Amino acid sequence: MKLLTFRAQNELKLGVHTDSGVLDIEQAVQQLSPDFNVPLTVHEAILGGTTANEALQQLVNLALKSEASASLLRSEDSLDYGPCVTNPSKIICVGLNYRKHAEETNAPIPQTPILFNKFSNTLTGHGHDIALPRVTKEVDYEAELVIVIGKQAKYVAKEQAYEHVYGYCCVNDLSARDLQMRTSQWLLGKSCDDFSPLGPYLVTADEVGNPNDLTISTTVNGKVRQNSHTSDMIFHCDEIVSYISQHMTLNPGDIILTGTPEGVVLGDPVDQRVYLQDGDVVTISIEKLGSLTNRLISE
Prior knowledge:
It is a single chain. With 299 residues, the chain is of the alpha+beta class. It has helices at 25-32, 42-65, 69-72, 99-104, 177-180, 187-190, 205-208, 237-245; strands at residues 2-8, 11-18, 21-24, 73-74, 91-95, 114-118, 123-124, 129-132, 139-140, 143-149, 165-172, 175-176, 196-204, 215-220, 223-229, 255-257, 281-286, 290-298. Strands 1, 2, 3, 4, 5, 6, 7, 10, 11, 13 and 16 form an 11-stranded mixed beta sheet that branches. It has a 5-stranded mixed beta sheet with strand order 8-18-17-14-15, with no helix packed on it. A two-stranded antiparallel sheet has the order 9-12. Helix 1 crosses helix 2.
């Protein structure tokens, strides 16, 4: 199942992607089955797990068969997307987690996952413009697979890690390289406003299968910049969830950004680096998860 959020009446609503359009869950409940027990927010869906997903699927099936389906389905082109996960208590990132990316930046291959964090101010949705901060001239793109936690995880073994995953989505881990490299701590260059566009869909784990067997790419203004595969991860998704859970409790709705492959601007020779500029359109695509597009604009 592909979940998403969209803004309507100044609120973020829950939608489900179908081949016929996006089902407005709140409207479907009101018109078809007011007493139907179904999540109305993406966080409620994550907390509800399999039971909530089954209820959503039943509602989708009912809506598609209904004479009122046309009024309940929205065109994706008309949506004002929100981030597909709206209120994670933690945004945890894994640095240098693709072998070829570490090599292109002349960094040693990590022996344990390199962790840092971002904040909720970085979240935005598919299709939104992102302002280039005034304090940087070196904004870079990073296509990344995101793990979305579905069940509380603490001291979880690698073999049980996927039992705690709700699903996956795309993110562009935008990075101001001059700010990132100013000190040994990367946080400043990673946490500017809207630096984590997330979506367009949150795809449930059952639909994705093996997260370490997916193609991943980036285009800038239609030109391919990154073109890789999640199998190049140094630490695979189950290892990442297990490792983090040894040190902190992961809660439903927490998100983990699993690192970026080779092809970032930082990996180019210094005299050939062309960082993101006003008007650039960046698209992150991951197999089975869809494509996330945002335009960069001057602030």
